[in-house]
Amino acid sequence: MILKIFQSESANIGECLSNLGEYSRRELLGTPGKIEKSKISLNFGAFMNVTIALDIDESQPAEKGLITAYASARNKRDALKKLQDALNKQIKSPMEIVDFEIGTYTTPVTRRTYAVGIIVYNIPLHEVELSKLSIKERRKILAKALELFNYNPKVLNISEVARTFGVSRDSIYYDIEQILKERRLRSG
């Protein structure tokens, strides 16, 4: 599991959400895994501040991201209706919504209401061909399996694991050896 935190602040709502979306796209593109949990914080005032924390399980493949939108109107109900329409246009099947947050803010002078929405999602990837994984990806999956079994390689059927990944038994033995060696060095 890894934690990713994104933050954006601006006097302009559109700029704040645009910066957040751009930064999160760059960061999430290079991060393997599936978002398991998230926490979204929207703060309004002279500046809009958005902070998002994501808990990502690196062992589960998924496309992931954020959907952001905002709308304004003379009253809260109309602003929320416009926001709902804007968000629904961006939600596509087979997205799995992990979390969402909606907030509103009415400006003191113009009395205009802004509604802001953020959605955190995963898109499940199709079946992964295990024989086409890189060594690093294969070891990440093996490491997770070993972690689940308290790092006891004897519980694994090495022949079946090798066949599943399309490699030799020697490759799997070497992978396990390297995983256990890295674990010893980390806990050192």
Strand order of the largest sheet: 1-3-2
Helix content: 25-40%
Summed over residues and divided by their number, the pLDDT gives a mean of 92
Which stretches are low in confidence, meaning pLDDT under 50 for 5 or more residues running?
none
Order of helices and strands: EHEEEHEEHHH
Shape field: elongated
- Give the DSSP E fraction (strand runs of 2 or more residues): 25-35%
> What's the main sheet like?
3 strands, antiparallel
Span of the ends, CA to CA: 20 Å
Number of helices: 5
Q: Structural class from helices and strands? A: alpha+beta
Radius of gyration: 22 Å
Quantity of strands, as a count: 6
What features would you describe in this structure?
The protein has 5 helices and 6 strands. The chain is an alpha+beta fold and about 190 residues long. It is elongated, with a radius of gyration of 22 Å.
Entry keywords:
188 residues, alpha+beta, three-stranded antiparallel sheet, 6 strands, 39% helix, elongated
Topology:
Elements: E1 2-10, H1 13-29, E2 34-43, E3 48-57, E4 62-73, H2 76-90, E5 96-106, E6 113-124, H3 135-148, H4 158-165, H5 169-187
Antiparallel strand pairs: 1-3, 2-3, 4-6, 5-6
Helix pairs in contact: 3-5, 4-5
